[in-house]
Write a structure and sequence with these properties.
By secondary structure, the protein is of the alpha+beta class. It has one domain: Nucleoside Triphosphate Pyrophosphohydrolase (Alpha-Beta Complex). Strands 2, 3, 4, 5, 6, 7, 8 and 9 form an 8-stranded mixed beta sheet that branches. The protein starts with 13 loop residues before the first strand and ends with a helix.
Length: about 230
């Protein structure tokens, strides 16, 4: 669904730099595994967006792929501009569930392989985060997995314009979590953005504007890891 506004043009109404960042040792694979084995008591900050369109809810999964590097990163994609849902936006690899998927994790792994060629042999699934319902009616299960180095990606050119990585520590630092508000379809909507200045595939500096559902699910991950 195309938006009638450019989220990057909206003013910033607040920055959450009063909140602590997640300590580096909590972002390393052993700590991440332990957090999912013995999760704390916590409450997701975001779960449901105001609806933009009326259609039957659609089950979907995304893969929150944390790459096991010296400084862990999160694997993200930019969707192509011609897609019907969320065109051109920064997203996790993922998509709608199919009847033959065994469960939500199977959906996330299948979609990641189809979209960016990420093979399951390089993945260690840690667990799932709470459901997140988008304004376009997708009821999304975020599946979190560690990605072992040595993997390769091959983007499906129909769905994915670019595959890139953002440092997990950057995303888990609320000083980079900015708040915006917009009225869309007669409904006031607040959302987060986490713009990151990175390098594109051609080696050029580029600003990646992480926002909306992707930023909201990352914020829930922040709450989970900092609880």
């Amino acid at each position: 669904m195309s938006l009638s506004f450019n989220p990057q043009d909206l003013p910033v109404i607040g920055v959450d730099d009063h909140l602590p960042s997640v300590a580096r040792d909590k972002l390393l694979p052993p700590a991440l595994r332990q957090r999912f084995i013995a999760p704390p008591r916590w409450t997701p900050e975001n779960s449901t967006e105001p609806r933009f369109i009326e259609r039957a809810p659609t089950r979907a999964s995304v893969l929150v792929a944390i790459v096991d590097r010296d400084e862990p990163t999160v694997l993200l994609t930019q969707r192509t501009d011609h897609l019907n849902d969320h065109p051109g936006q920064i997203a996790f690899p993922g998509g709608r569930a199919e009847p033959y998927d065994a469960d939500e994790t199977a959906t996330a792994l299948r979609e990641a392989q189809e979209e960016i060629g990420l093979q399951t042999s390089h993945l260690d699934v840690l667990g799932a985060m709470p459901l997140y319902t988008t304004g376009t009616g997708f009821v999304v299960t975020p599946v979190v997995a560690l990605v072992r180095p040595g993997f390769q990606t091959m983007a499906d050119p129909f769905e994915v314009a670019e595959v890139f990585e953002v440092p997990l520590a950057f995303l888990m630092n609320p000083a980079h979590h900015r708040r915006h508000v917009v009225e869309f379809g007669g409904v006031r909507r607040e959302f987060l953005s986490m713009p990151w200045q990175g390098i594109d595939g051609q080696g050029h500096p580029r600003r990646y504007f992480v926002w909306g559902a992707t930023a909201a699910m990352l914020r829930n991950l922040y709450r989970f890891l900092s609880a």
